[in-house]
Amino acid sequence: MAGKIQFDVDIALDAAMVQFWRAGYADTSVDDLSRATGLNRSSIYSSLGDKESLYLRCLDRYATRYGDKYDQALSRASTEPLRAVREFFDVTLRRIADPDVPDGCLVAQTALAIPALSPGIAARAIEALDRQRARLRTALTAAKLPDRDADDFAVHLAAVNQSLAVMSRAGAGPEQLRAIVEVSVSALAQALSARS
Known about the structure:
Blueprint: H1 9-23, H2 30-37, H3 41-48, H4 51-74, H5 81-97, H6 106-112, H7 119-142, H8 147-169, H9 174-195
Pfam families: TetR_C_13, TetR_N
Domain HTH tetR-type: 6-66
DNA-binding region: 29-48
């Protein structure tokens, strides 16, 4: 169609996601999104939605992208639970080390800002955290941890995973982050050996 600007929605969503990830929801303006995506304001609104709708799309995109990687890492939990949990954390550590994406975690960043966010965004961030805890619980149950231990470790490991992103943003280096992971894996190893 003559005069209609064509663009790749996936590329625009990724650019918006990185902008939100880098600056946060409150500190990202529609003009910032326009610069990041290369789209004018009217194209953003007509194609991607208002700022809140776009943020929700980006948050879902982020949670799905890394959630799929977490699921893959945890898929061997029934036979190699410690390796699966280490690989789960490796997804986060690789993301933190990736120079092509902002430091930290979009979900953790959103959760930290919940008091200042709309109920819709707050609910979506809580859902993303709940999905992470649920995937860990499923993996730990498959590893034959008793239900109570699986619940407790799922909450703990999800919290540690989010803290890695926060600690990274605060300047913790790779060795410190790996040490945090190893303390959690060591505690899980003790729980797994105690079950037998």
